[in-house]
What does this fold into?
Amino acid sequence: MMRRSSRALYENPRIWESGQPDTVRERVSLTVAAVPSDVGTILEVGSGNGQVIDALYEAGYDPIALDISYNALKHINSTKRVQGEANILPFPPNSFDLVLACELLEHIPNSTFGRVLDEISKIAKKHIIITVPFQERLEWNYARCPVCGCIFNGSYHVRSFDDDQLKHLFKGFKCVNLKKIVNVLHPDRTISLELFIRHHLASEYLYCATWVTCPLCFTLVDKRPRRNWIGWVAAGVRYLYRTVSRRKSPLWYLTVYERS
It folds into this structure.
């Protein structure tokens, strides 16, 4: 379902017009700093509105941006932009010293995931750098369409990653640096008890934003549902957890691979 509707979802201009919070700016800065010294040519697959690609351009590189969304590419300041899909990259083997995939792989469905990894490996001559959410549980950000009832991840994420998966992700490449980056207190996460109460007892799915669109019927999901007393119990559980727990947690993985 997500694959069939992906073009329409990511052409929504509202997705690409949001500002850049401090946490994202830190992730972008760390990504640029991780670029190896022997890199000349760079491609970013799934460049979005250019948060990373523009930072690379400002750092003196001349990168190429590729994204499925025309509306996303319009926001990019650097001139080299290509509209295309990650599973059919229009470049010959070993075209780029470095291929980046920042906040891309968590969006790729099972039907094309292996192909995307192979395409990235094929065109990367020396290095690959990726960033993905840190050990994400997809249900943290569930939304429910008010019209058709479809329940989906509001960020359109369909997979999550852990250390072991990332260490052996790309054929022909070895992981040379795996970092957990941007540690924050009380990230937008919760505990299993609160999720169980909220989803299964209160039928409450809270994720919403001005750009969140149902992948089934394309209805805008921009309003939180009305909360009943069971939902308030779930909110109380979350408040108690956040009051007691003071542990910081990383938001993302940043992983560097080198051709072996």
Residues 2-259 form a domain with the Rossmann fold fold (CATH 3.40.50.150). The mean pLDDT is 92. Helices lie at 2-10, 22-33, 51-58, 70-73, 110-123, 163-167, 192-201, 229-244. The radius of gyration is 19 Å.
